[in-house]
Design goal:
With 51 residues, this protein is mainly alpha-helical. It has 1 helix and no strands. It has a domain of 31 residues.
Length: 51
């Protein structure tokens, strides 16, 4: 017997505002990460100003 399985693909729609918010959040996270690396390289401290 030869049985075939059929997959049903559901497409989900995402609001444009959520996509824009996620992209913006990711970009700010990348900027923060680069700023943290820059602060560490220039001061030698993970959080500048703390002992």
């Amino acid at each position: 017997m030869n049985s075939k399985k059929v997959k049903v693909l559901e497409t989900k729609t995402v609001e444009k505002e959520k996509v824009v918010a996620e992209k913006l959040n990711g970009r700010f996270a990348m900027i923060g990460f680069i700023a943290a690396i820059g602060a560490y390289l220039t001061t030698g401290q993970i959080i500048p100003g703390f002992v």
